[in-house]
UniProtKB/TrEMBL annotation:
Domain of life the protein comes from: Bacteria
GO biological process, one term: isopentenyl diphosphate biosynthetic process, methylerythritol 4-phosphate pathway
Keyword entries, A-Z: Isoprene biosynthesis, Nucleotidyltransferase, Transferase
Gene3D superfamilies referenced in this protein's UniProt entry, alphabetically: Spore Coat Polysaccharide Biosynthesis Protein SpsA, Chain A
Gene: ispD
Listed pathway(s): Isoprenoid biosynthesis; isopentenyl diphosphate biosynthesis via DXP pathway; isopentenyl diphosphate from 1-deoxy-D-xylulose 5-phosphate: step 2/6
Record's protein name: 2-C-methyl-D-erythritol 4-phosphate cytidylyltransferase
Recorded family membership: Belongs to the IspD/TarI cytidylyltransferase family. IspD subfamily.
Leader peptide range in chain numbering: none
Function, in words: Catalyzes the formation of 4-diphosphocytidyl-2-C-methyl-D-erythritol from CTP and 2-C-methyl-D-erythritol 4-phosphate (MEP).
PANTHER family to which the protein is assigned, alphabetical: 2-C-METHYL-D-ERYTHRITOL 4-PHOSPHATE CYTIDYLYLTRANSFERASE, CHLOROPLASTIC
Site (Positions MEP for the nucleophilic attack): R156, K210
Length: 229
């Protein structure tokens, strides 16, 4: 079976509040997206990396990816992340088999490490469902009433924070996203769960943050600088 990374990069970065979508903001002198691409292209287990941009993306420059032989750039992003991934999977249909593995990874997670990608692949390569990188929670959790008063403390031993990559077979994931009509689908795993299947949680890395708000950029550049040192 093949292992292919699919990177949704068609978002507008509204929570970042910058004029440019966050995947194009500079991080240690490179567009954020280029760090993400480099990290995945450095994973020996991945045969191919597919980047999905918005059809009206005005920022991407082909020169950034010159020489990246394992990379394919598509311009079929959609209005939501799920739609971007669905369009990317549909575009790949002719070149992958239904049981090939797709690792969907947020373009906005530039600190992804080879180590956790390889752990995900090694843990799931024979799994019937697939799964995702995830981490336990550190904070104490509260269940609130409508007025902002805490009613109870929620046991956190069964709760995890989902990260990416999320790794599922092409055929199953496309079917899951095509039947996922409701807006509550924020990641691939939730679409798979809606089919009644239980994705496996594989230990991720605290540093694999999603750059969402301005402060996240400083943290990401610190992590990347430490790695490159
Ligand atoms: N994404 C995408 N297509 C969309 C929306 C999001 O490909 N229509 C991608 C983003 O580019 C990002 C990843 O999905 O790499 C995670 O999404 P998120 O962090 O929510 O990014 P944005 O949607 O761009 O940010 P915001 O929600 O703040 O607008
Ligand atoms: Mg978003």
């Amino acid at each position: 079976n093949r292992f292919v990374a699919l990177l949704p990069a068609a978002g507008s970065g509204s929570r970042m509040g910058a004029a440019t979508p966050k995947q194009y903001l500079p991080l240690l002198g490179q567009p954020l997206l280029v760090h993400t691409l480099r990290a995945l292209l450095g994973c020996p287990g991945l045969e191919r990396v597919v980047l999905v941009l918005s059809p009206d993306d005005a920022w991407f420059e082909p020169a950034w990816v010159a020489g990246m032989d394992k990379l394919t750039v598509l311009r079929c992003g959609g209005a939501s992340r799920a739609e971007t991934v669905r369009n990317g999977l549909a575009a790949l249909q002719a070149s992958v088999a239904a049981d090939d593995w797709i690792l969907v990874h947020d373009a906005a997670r530039p600190c992804i490490g080879v180590e956790e990608v390889e752990r995900l692949i090694d843990t799931l390569r024979d799994d019937p469902v697939g799964g995702l990188l995830a981490l336990p929670l550190a904070d104490t959790l509260k269940r609130a009433d409508g007025e902002g008063r805490s009613l109870a403390t929620v046991p956190r031993d069964t709760l995890w924070r989902a990260q990416t990559p999320q790794m599922f077979r092409h055929g199953m994931l496309l079917r899951a996203l095509e039947s996922a009509t409701h807006a509550g689908i924020t990641d691939e795993a939730s679409a798979i769960e809606a089919l009644g299947l239980a994705p496996r949680l594989v230990a991720g890395n605290e540093r694999n943050i999603k750059v969402t708000y301005p402060d996240d950029l400083a943290l990401a550049s610190l992590y990347l600088a430490e790695r490159n040192r």
